[in-house]
Amino acid sequence: xxNYKFKCKDIGMKDDFEVKGAxxxxxxxxxxxxxxKAEHGMETVPADVAAKISAAIKS
Length: 59
Ligand SMILES: [Zn+2]
Description:
Layout: E1 4-7, E2 18-22, H1 25-40, H2 47-56
Antiparallel strand pairs: 1-2
The structure holds zinc ion.
Residues 8, 13, 15, 17, 35, 39-40 line the site of zinc ion (ZN).
């Protein structure tokens, strides 16, 4: 069973947001993008941040 995980803290953010149990990296990215917009004021996730998130996703 896939269980992709990501924490904002993994990319140096100070909040406690985390994704657990996602089925794919793409799902993590989608959830993170919604969070980034709501909590970090990112209308879209910049490419450098997206790269950091992608690198920080664990499975
Ligand atoms: Zn966050």
